[in-house]
Specification:
The protein is mainly alpha-helical and about 375 residues long. Helices cover about 80% and strands about 0% of the residues.
Length: about 375
């Protein structure tokens, strides 16, 4: 029972640490006067990606590259399908045009870049990791400079209505950040140790554990942040958090983990036939989902959640039975993503056509 206790305690510390980090860092960012979209793409994304950074770093130092890679790839898949899907099911989410024109293509480009790095020699070298980390710094600076102009963000959207007196002072904000980082480091170590032992006892590979259990666990801060932001009408924060987190997973998480490790990050050959192609497919799915109507509808959220359920079932069943997920299985999942994109495009066009025939809620039918 000790591995399960370690893993659950690690999850609890990760969630609590991420919340403290987001509260403190977001308050500091808000005082600088940046827009909600930039807060979501940078500060909140860094905070909610902190569990992935901590787990990846601990995995790298512990010599567990499969858990590291599985966490990054699995978290990116989870963020789009589970986090956005759940938020959209609760309330339709409008998408800022900037995200469609800029952040989605950048996320797709980062996904292709990481896949290409891994494909060339079956590993991500320390030099390549340093390059990814440099790109993360450059993107963050670019996003902040570009987004200095924007509407003010409601403090309670990020810190919660209770906010706390601690989060109102600069000293308190720094204290929250420190406590959050400490909890993340400790929680990540417990999570890695517990998940590795469970994988060994169940006969599952560390890659499968990273793609499923650890990926969902470290994505819980994104789930909470995006759902709360969507319900409060802060759609820039909800969507920006997901895209920013995915970008940071690929650039900052792999960059930091590769830089602190003593060697290159090896990539399991099975990941090329299934997990990495699915991650690419999910990144490309964002284009039609966001582009058609610049809005994620409830039925699209259900579609995303259904695809994630199918992905989890495939990975888990294959892991328990020792099936190879390369080749045909990967092709089926990628083909499903293509079909889902087509359904989204056709469905959105039909809905827009139907809505165009309805009287607008802003003016009477037949009136000018």
């Amino acid at each position: 029972m000790i591995p399960w206790v370690l893993m659950l305690a690690g999850f609890a510390l990760l969630i609590g640490g991420a919340e403290a980090l987001v509260r403190g860092a977001s308050r500091l960012a808000i005082t600088v006067g940046v827009s909600p979209l930039v807060v979501g793409l940078t500060v909140v994304a860094y905070g909610t990606s902190a569990p992935e950074v901590a787990v990846a770093t601990a995995s790298s130092l512990a010599g567990k590259p499969d858990l590291l890679l599985g966490n990054v790839v699995g978290s990116n898949i989870c963020n789009v399908l589970l986090v956005l899907g759940a938020a959209a099911v609760l309330t339709p989410i409008a998408v800022d045009r900037r995200l469609i024109r800029q952040e989605v293509p950048i996320m797709i480009g980062a996904s292709v870049l990481v896949f290409g790095m891994a494909w060339t020699d079956g590993a991500i070298s320390r030099l390549e990791s340093a390059g990814l980390l440099a790109l993360a710094v450059a993107y963050t600076a670019f996003a902040v400079i570009q987004g200095r102009r924007g509407r003010a963000i409601d403090v309670e959207t990020v810190t919660g209505p209770e906010g706390g007196a601690l989060a109102r002072s600069v000293g308190g904000q720094v204290a929250l950040i420190g406590v959050g980082l400490l909890a993340l480091v400790l929680g990540s170590n417990w999570l890695v140790d517990g998940a590795s032992e469970i994988a060994r006892r169940l006969g599952l590979s560390e890659l499968v554990i990273g793609l499923t259990v650890v990926a969902i666990g470290t994505s819980l801060p994104e789930v909470a942040t995006s759902v709360v932001a969507a319900l409060r009408g802060e759609r820039d924060l909800a969507v920006g958090n997901v895209l920013g987190s995915n970008l940071l997973n690929l650039l900052a998480v792999l960059g930091v983990a590769g830089a602190v490790g003593s060697a290159a990050i090896p990539v399991d050959p099975g990941a090329f036939g299934f997990d990495l192609p699915v991650m690419l497919a999910v990144a490309f799915v964002c284009l039609p989902v966001f582009w058609t109507g610049a809005r994620i509808e409830r039925w699209e959220g259900v579609l995303l959640l259904g695809y994630y359920a199918a992905y989890l079932a495939t990975v888990t069943i294959a892991g328990l039975n020792g099936y190879d997920l390369g080749g045909r299985a990967g092709g089926v999942m990628v083909g499903t993503a293509v079909l889902m994109s087509a359904i989204v495009v056709v469905g959105s066009l039909l809905q827009r056509s139907r809505d165009g025939r309805r009287p607008s809620i802003d003016r009477p039918a037949g009136g000018a």
